[in-house]
Amino acid sequence: MSLRQSPLRAAHEKLGARLVEFGGWEMPLSYPSGTLAEHLACRADAVVFDVSHLGTVRVEGQHAFAALQSTLTNDLTRIAPGGAQYTHLLADDASVMDDIIVWWVGPERFDVMPNASNTARVRAAIGGLDVTAERAVMAVQGPRARALLAAVSPEAAEVSHFRAVPFTFDGAPCVAAGTGYTGEDGVECAVPSEVAERFWDALVAAGIAPAGLGARDTLRLEAGFPLHGHELGPGITPLQAGLSWVVGWDKPEFLGREALLAERASGPRRRLRGLVGESRRPLHAGDSCLVEGTAVGEVTSGNFSPVLERGIALAFLPPDVAEGGAVGVQVRGSVLPTTVRRPPFHKLEKR
Q1: Domains 4-52+132-223 and 57-116+237-267 share a fold
Q2: Interatomic CA distance for residues 107 and 76, integer angstroms
């Protein structure tokens, strides 16, 4: 089966991007500057990611609110039209089938954004129309993101954190949301496909550096954000992932509610923790975690932190392994000492 392509593919080629398969899409992994430079540019300045591989399921009409409220974990009454919310879709056993951002664009319009490979699954659960092919989504992230974005769209640059507001570009209706996946301030812009390349080119011309999925992953790991298929997925619940705040516990109904209530009563059998190594050696997904020589879990995501200049990781560990505890991580025959630390890692003091 052929890979899906972003409306921005030609723009990526012109910039010399290295294109790879991701979630059934052909997307830029990095540009000639390289992942490390792109990562540090996001922490210090501003970058733009093409995240068009994320799905958009549009749910509209008088029953849209009820359909989402009775299916997804978070409580939409916590926000209002013009808001955005992080939420989960659970299986019957409370496993996270997908983690999702809901943009409440209008009184009876919700743009629900699943992960790339889960769009059909989410649509089957909530209804609506898959409008992914009609738009591109660009994430402008970094401490100077809003200042530089303002040269392209002042309206988009002004959107508040976890708000979603319409704006226009080149006469086309767009939506900007104060959301992102890097641990930095920023805005995500959904732009119709026919003007997407012009919007991207305007961002780059404004001084916003392009960045690929490689930097997006190292940035989200430094921020301690979960990735579906690693920290979320089959057998993993919101409680195990430390995301109980994503659950509207007082709601009478959502998928997986009974199993999640039972786990809350008994306590999760494991918890997601952050690990910081003592050297530059990166940690890797699948590495075994040891406490006093006994295997107690494994790394779900790991890499080198460009900010801390040390290996970092997320791992599921027994509940009694507390912050500040010592954990050995077995990396290619060696056991590397690490300390349990609470993310975001890039906010920790650098040694």
Answers
A1: no
A2: 12
C-beta separation of 167 from 175 below 8 A = yes
Collapsing DSSP states into helix, strand and coil, what is residue 120? helix
The token pair that represents 240 in the structure block:
């195990």
In whole angstroms, give the CA distance from residue 171 to residue 184.
29
Superfamily of segment(s) 270-347: Aminomethyltransferase beta-barrel domains (2.40.30.110)
- As a whole number of angstroms, the distance between CA 273 and CA 271 comes to 6
* Cα–Cα distance for residue pair 11/291, rounded to 1 Å: 49
Q: Tokens representing 53?
A: 């591989």
In the chain, the percentage of residues whose pLDDT exceeds 70 is 99
Residue stretches of the chain with pLDDT short of 70: 1, 351
Tokens of 46: 């501003």
DSSP annotation of 293 reads T
Structure tokens at 16: 């010399």
Tens digits of residue pLDDT in 260-308: 999 999 999 999 999 999 999 999 999 999 999 999 999 999 999 999 9
Give pLDDT, residue 333.
Answer: 86
Chain-centre distance of CA 128, in angstroms? Answer: 22
- Which among 303, 246, 247 has a CA at the least distance from the CA of 274? 303
Distance CA 84, CA 176 (A): 10
Question: Where do the domains of the chain lie?
Answer: 4-52+132-223, 57-116+237-267, 270-347
- The fold adopted by the segment(s) 57-116+237-267 is Alpha-Beta Plaits (3.30.70)
Q: What angle do CA 308, 313, 318 make, to 5 degrees?
A: 135
- C-alpha torsion sign, points 323, 324, 328, 332: positive
Specify the pLDDT at position 131. Answer: 98
Give the helix ranges, DSSP H, for the chain: 9-14, 35-44, 64-69, 119-126, 145-149, 154-157, 193-205, 213-223, 257-266
C-alpha 277/C-alpha 197 separation (Å) is 41
In the prediction, which pLDDT does 116 show? 87
The span from the CA of 181 to the CA of 217, in Å, is 9
Taking domain 4-52+132-223, whether its CATH number is 3.30.1360.120 is answered by yes
